[in-house]
Amino acid sequence: MFEEDKDDKIYNLIISNGTDFNREYAQFTEKLFSKTDFLWKESISSSYSTAGEQFYGKVDRIILLAGLYKNNKESFDDLIEAGEKYNIPIILVRPYGLEEVPVNLEEKAAMIVGWNANCIVDAIKGSDEFLEE
User: Fold this and answer.
1) Strands, DSSP E only, in 2-128?
2) Is the pTM higher than 0.90?
3) pLDDT of the chain along its 133 residues, tens only?
4) Domain boundaries along the sequence of the chain
5) Per CATH, which fold does 3-131 belong to?
6) Alpha-carbon gap, residue 55 to 68, rounded angstroms
């Protein structure tokens, strides 16, 4: 890696979680951990609908695992609303093994990615540019 490419930023992420029969959350975090040159931490709230500026002001990206949407619609809606309100890029990860994502989620996402660790990290690092459009 070239020195000018080195990114020492620690990305503060919210990663959708909840009822997860296929262990997509665990698989996703394993992908992030596999990228040893990518620094991140996760912010978790017991209620995303009541968390305010103090909580969301520190968040860099919201990651929505589309495969969890069906069983966790309320928390997804809370995260989408927060992303819009606090201008936080939303990255949508396709359901594991599938290409299609719910249209209402696709419309809110700054970027949509699959399960390749490099693509996920690139989306997280580059999603700010999509807010300016």
Assistant:
1) 10-15, 39-42, 61-65, 90-93, 111-113
2) no
3) 444 456 789 999 999 999 999 999 999 999 999 999 999 999 999 899 999 999 999 999 999 999 999 999 999 999 999 999 999 999 999 988 777 888 899 999 999 999 999 999 999 998 665 544 4
4) 3-131
5) Rossmann fold (3.40.50)
6) 23
